Amino acid sequence: MKQLHPNSIIVFYVNGLIASVFLLGFVFFFPGMLLVGLAIEGTISFVWSIIFIIFSIAVIFILPLPWAQLSYQSFKYQLDDETIVIERGVIWKRHVSIPYQRVQNVDIVRGPIARMLGFADLQIQTAGISGVAIMEGRIPAITPEDAIELKDKILSKVAKSRNQGL
């Protein structure tokens, strides 16, 4: 099975950092404001509020680092003869096997962060409920060249699987 580009850790880190800022930012914001208020009143020393703020910022920025590394290590993909296999997940492992016969569309998506870092996401849509196409597979943070190559390989295998007939 293939792994993503090693620099994709940066994408996982940025995504984790965004989540960390929103989730942990709220957790640390209110106690931080309380400590600053108490320091202004003179109840406690400003040093304690500054230490708490530095600790909070350190946790918010450092916590996504091991998560990004684990996310990178746990993400693998492979094109078999009949299916696309994607494995991912740090805590909850997810193994997706997509038969080429069900593939409806393959998209290459480049968001702002991915463009800045020179990456693309490959999104694989399959036939869903009542004929609605849903994204069942996603290979994030691959180079645009690899994304185009993978897309071409998948679409050629999709065409072969449909031409084999009954």
Shape: elongated
Helix amount, in percent? 40-55%
Low-confidence stretches: none
For the largest beta sheet, what order do the strands appear in spatially?
A: 1-2-3-4
CATH superfamily of the largest domain: Pleckstrin-homology domain (PH domain)/Phosphotyrosine-binding domain (PTB)
Identify the quaternary structure here.
single chain
What is the SS-derived class?
Answer: alpha+beta
Report on the structure:
By secondary structure, the chain is of the alpha+beta class. It folds into two domains: 2-70; 77-163, Pleckstrin-homology domain (PH domain)/Phosphotyrosine-binding domain (PTB) (PH-domain like), CATH 2.30.29. Helix content is 53%, strand content 26%. The protein has five helices and seven strands. It has helices spanning 8-41, 46-62, 64-74, 112-117, 144-163; strands at 2-3, 76-79, 83-88, 94-99, 103-109, 120-127, 133-142. The protein has a four-stranded antiparallel sheet. A three-stranded antiparallel sheet has the order 5-6-7, with helices on one face. A hairpin with a 5-residue loop joins strand 6 and strand 7 (133-142).
